[in-house]
Amino acid sequence: MSTALAQEKGLEDEIPVPEKSPEILVVDEKDIQSTSLDDDDSVQFVRGEPVIRTGKDVSRFAVDIRDDGDEALTFRSMFLGTIFAALGAALRQIYLFKPLEMTVSTVFLLLITYTAGNAWATFLPTRNAVEGTRLAFLGQALHFVNPGPFTLKEHAVASLVASTAAGGSSSVMNFAVQRVGRLSASY
């Protein structure tokens, strides 16, 4: 019911009428880049750095709004993530029933994935190595295997894959308990 109609019927005080309906804002990337993030006077700066107090401050000062267009899901990121997930899970499963239980830290996986990704990008040939030679037909395959420098997005994907699966399977405990129960029942 509109506010004018509510005033005519004398229902102005009885029915709360929203002044403005929620709208979906469509923002162009150029508008975001042209706006200044420092236009709010309520932000406190200490030694030139903003003090982050709210979620708005986090999105304004801590999260990068830039997207460089790099690929995140590459063969390299998935391969490294899968290999380190398998190694972490195997280590976890082997030491699950030992007196000293061993796990692989996600920080270790993060660091080892970064090191392996940079080594991969440095030592494996890229498409540029075969351009203009008789092996130029291998350019697409080399780009698939090594698209160039190891990017932040690839590192994030590989680290997420590795840390998610490196905990091992918790269902193994169920099978172990069932087997122990069968062994003790037979004695």
Short description:
The chain is mainly alpha-helical and 187 residues long.
Explain this structure to me?
The protein is mainly α and 187 residues long. The protein is built from eight helices and two strands; from the N terminus they run H-H-E-E-H-H-H-H-H-H. It has a two-stranded antiparallel sheet. Helix 4 packs across helix 5 and helix 5 packs across helix 7. The longest helix has 20 residues. The termini are far apart.
For the largest sheet, list the strands in their spatial order: 1-2
Question: Which runs of at least 5 residues are low in confidence (pLDDT < 50)?
Answer: none
Counting copies of identical and different chains, the oligomeric state is: single chain
Strand count, sense and barrel status of the largest sheet are: 2 strands, antiparallel
Give the helices and strands as they follow along the chain: HHEEHHHHHH
Question: Structural class, from helix and strand content?
Answer: mainly alpha
What's the shape?
A: flat
Distance between the termini: 80 Å
Percentage of residues in helical conformation: 40-55%
List the helices and strands and how they pair.
Blueprint: H1 3-9, H2 29-34, E1 45-46, E2 49-50, H3 55-62, H4 75-94, H5 106-123, H6 139-145, H7 152-165, H8 171-186
Antiparallel strand pairs: 1-2
Helix pairs in contact: 4-5, 4-7, 5-7
